[in-house]
Inverse folding.
């Protein structure tokens, strides 16, 4: 008899952990991803701000599973599902499965304002990170040759939308770069004068954290001269102009660089899957699954990670964080193995270790179970936990060296403006605000 | 009196060394480059083959000269020169100069076959390197899901055109990757079976080297199963098909990946400059300059490095290598300083330290003065000299660690297929050879 075929769509935290947990099972695993690497998303903001290189936080999937003989990797685009005949449709060709694990994750969501994506890029992929890096660094280059003071101010204004961990990390790192790293690099513009705003519609930052840690993060950002605007929403987004609304007050801010960390929505594959199963998508396009993480009526089709909408015993949805995806990946692998032995497992339960967010140099907040940490201690914990998680030894070592160097010297060596980033932004290479500037007559 | 204004176009080896050599002079230096970084081109092939990351071999220009108070950096595109009024035209704006140093370098040249550039990318920029990396790695990914044996063979055939140092390095590293690094990564295709051809029109490789070292390099490549085709020229280049001609024999080879290391031509700025000065361009569009490296009739306009056509006392042109550019940059700086003191300098002389090329793991050839080296000794020399030259301490350390790791483990960690590379290749993401393949029905 042929082995049980497990197809896993997506090589992120959920999919990769599922694949690796099937290591010793007598199954054939096929891990399908449109990229050839696993991306350590929690450190993506470090690439966006020039602290790390893409290859520091991305590891080829093939090299991760090279010794796992029951696992194949296929780099391909999934375009649909045939749940009746148990096949995954690829751009060209089909893959049959006995069990399917869909872990396609989430993408930046603009709450229906899709045209905002080029005006305020999100941070979900290597390309996103390189595009944001290009925009941040280009803003200073343009400011250096700008003579009109109003335009110069707009070039040195950065707005981060979204006060979750990613927004806090971006705003904090921007403050660090401008106040320290770039200080001596420019002759005619003062990066240290850059205005950095962090905007959130909620009444506090880091909503998943205890309230005093939110306050701590806000204070810390204020000390780094980041303007935190709470209870504030983005009313309009135009090219290099953002309109904010706080209560009855509306404010228009000219900002060359606007970054979006305000929301995610499920991968479009979620829609395919809910349609194929005759279900109704949950909030943000997520796919509703039962307590054992499979589709209703399809016990052989699992959805995990950011793509899934699963709830705990009290009916609360699990948060869209890496530990949930990791634990769900391992759970589904165990469930598949159990079923092959004609056993069953109890419902998935999430063990919540806690929450942490870094703000900048030696500054972080963390809540682990009943304990709370802040400042340098929290930062070292954050550093340690993230380094330990980076998949392979080599990357961990290089990342540590790079970080140590950055920490000691305030330097960030990956400050390259390369002509990469998302294709749709090709027309945006020279930002509009500077188009008529007479830059240089010293 | 205002300081003497020196404008340097290009932050490569020539321009950067000129700027740094003017450190203590009472001049105002403006270093103009369209990129924000200095690129260590000799190691670009390591990025193209996944051994190093872009930021390992590129350093922001601003951070290199941040402590040089008489030097400004301007990231801008130069579009022309007004030699009469002494101004450099930028995309938007002008920069005036008292002395001008043009060091805009060279780009990949196709001997009039411009349409070959997308079929066989050259290796002159970070984008080039990432595009080549994407093509090489994608070829294996496509081969893994290809079932047609003829198409599979084409996917696993790599042709490197040009047997100079870059071509030898690319072919040697390709052999290393396929024979070692990727060996265990794939399940259905055998990277070790990849066919690698190195083609050159000359009767031997590494024409600048002594003949016995050329033979040594050729033998070494043959032992790594690289087919070296000498006295062979490229008759036609089509998408994934190359037609070779050796004597009266014509051979058509289907190869998904064709890389071009066969020639360079001067930056288009050379044409602007020769036209502005009323001169006739030299071979490859280079700008002819006199023994003091300035334009005839324009003692205030210097051209150095790959863009310049200068000859030594015996009328032989200087080779297009980094040491020439470096020495010319330093010479011109000294000449400008001398002139400010109403002194003059003798003609530029090139001190030739020698030549080296690396072939692969522990294999290189080197000729230093009267001495010749080969094998591991030459490789260690090559490593040492190149590391010492990488501009900053941090990069040197990271590059060394990365190399040591690669050497010990046969690994190459920067094997990411990112959706970057040159824009014109956007349509080429899915190579044509596989378009109708039914890839997967295990």
């Amino acid at each position: 008899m042929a082995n049980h075929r497990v197809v896993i769509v997506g090589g992120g935290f959920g999919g990769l952990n599922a694949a690796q947990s099937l290591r010793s099972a007598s199954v054939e695993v096929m891990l399908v991803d449109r990229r050839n690497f696993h991306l350590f998303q929690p450190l993506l903001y470090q690439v966006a701000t020039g602290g790390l290189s893409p290859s520091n936080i991305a590891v080829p999937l093939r090299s991760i599973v090279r010794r796992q003989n029951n696992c194949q990797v296929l780099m391909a685009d999934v375009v649909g599902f045939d749940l009746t005949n148990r096949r995954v449709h690829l751009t060209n060709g089909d893959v049959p499965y006995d069990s399917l694990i869909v872990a396609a994750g989430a993408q930046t969501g603009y709450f229906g304002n899709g045209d905002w994506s080029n005006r305020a890029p999100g941070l979900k992929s290597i390309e996103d990170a390189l595009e944001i890096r290009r925009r941040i660094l280009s803003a200073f280059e343009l400011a250096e040759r700008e003579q009109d003071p109003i335009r110069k101010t707009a070039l040195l204004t950065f707005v981060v939308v979204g006060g979750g961990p990613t927004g806090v990390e971006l705003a904090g790192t921007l403050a660090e770069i401008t106040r320290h790293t770039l200080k001596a690099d420019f002759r005619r513009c003062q990066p240290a004068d850059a205005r950095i705003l962090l905007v959130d519609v909620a009444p506090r930052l880091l909503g998943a954290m205890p309230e005093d840690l939110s306050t701590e993060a806000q204070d810390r950002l204020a000390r780094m001269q980041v303007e935190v605007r709470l209870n504030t929403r983005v009313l309009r987004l135009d090219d290099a102009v953002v309109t904010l609304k706080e209560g009855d007050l509306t404010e228009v801010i000219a900002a060359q660089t606007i970054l979006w960390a305000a929301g995610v929505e499920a991968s479009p594959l979620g829609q395919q899957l809910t349609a194929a199963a005759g279900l109704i998508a949950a909030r943000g396009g997520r796919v509703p699954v039962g307590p054992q993480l499979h589709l209703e009526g399809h016990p052989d089709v699992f959805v995990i990670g950011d793509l899934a909408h699963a709830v705990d015993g009290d009916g609360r949805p699990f948060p869209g964080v890496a530990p949930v995806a990791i634990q769900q990946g391992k759970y589904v692998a165990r469930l598949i193995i159990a079923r092959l032995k004609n056993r069953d497992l109890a419902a998935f339960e999430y063990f919540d270790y806690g929450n942490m967010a870094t703000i900048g140099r030696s500054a972080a907040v963390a809540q682990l179970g009943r304990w709370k940490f802040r400042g340098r201690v929290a930062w070292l914990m954050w550093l340690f936990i993230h380094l330990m998680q980076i998949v392979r030894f080599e990357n961990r070592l290089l990342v540590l060296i790079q970080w140590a160097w950055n920490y000691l010297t305030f330097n960030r060596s990956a400050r390259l403006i390369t002509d990469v980033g998302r294709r749709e932004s090709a027309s945006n290479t020279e930002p509009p605000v500077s188009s008529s500037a007479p830059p240089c007559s010293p």
Chain B has a mean pLDDT of 89. The longest strand of chain B covers residues 27-33.
